[in-house]
Design brief:
mainly alpha; globular; binds fe (ii) ion
Amino acid sequence: MIEIDRRAFISALGGTAAVGLMSHEARADALEEHLARRLQLAQAEPGSPPERFPTAAEIEARIPTRHYRRGVGTLFLETDPERTVGVLAPMPERPTLVDFLERRFTFPRSHCLQSANKALERGVDEEVVLACLLHDLVQVMMRSDHGYWGAQLFEPYVPERTAFAIKYHQALRFYADEEAGYTYPDLYYRIFGEDYVPAPHVQAAYEYVRGHRWYDAPREVTVSDLYAFDPDAEVSLDPFVDIIGRNFKQPEEGLGNDGSPVAHMWRTIANPDAPL
Ligand SMILES: [Fe+2]
Ligand SMILES: [Fe+2]
């Protein structure tokens, strides 16, 4: 187990009084996050004992202690009882992908930019760099089965191989491929449980993609994915503006106004405060 500085942790959460108001579950989540951030440092410490991961049953047992479900999109809740969801910046009349990146995809943006940056550094082709840039963005709307939701959201606007990579990165994350440079991440032992077995549709998707001619694309998304990323790192969107311009078919009327089969999904992300 990683040693934590209790005083620093409590003050980071807003002090003893604030921690006292947090539900048991919110405290557990905050601690989990805190430990994940410190993990990389701890791993570097020689002689530190291995971390004890929860079992899938222990993860399951936390469900009735929460007032929200883990699959809910991040735009729709604030798990910290000390904070509110806040008022969102208005969207322009004809919103582009960049507008959404700047004003709505705020939670996974840093993670996705860091992944796309890594893919650029690895010399990956643009269709896959774009997949890395987009791969987790849909989590603002829905986290459960996010590969499928994400592929659906972007499918009308991106190359077919980019949507394929977004869709199947979800399944490939659960399967190591040392040759490709992908090791099963400790983060998944932590969030799914050490003995977690992927759902049957994920196993079937893996078998399907393993033999597919585009296997390299979703695999690259998992290789360029970051499992101990720095939540505070500021990565610029600038290097990706041209890649988006060349590979993302921006509808003239704006995302959400274009009558595509997924326009309503963009509207939901643009207006998450709409009650119905
Ligand atoms: Fe993902
Ligand atoms: Fe990711």
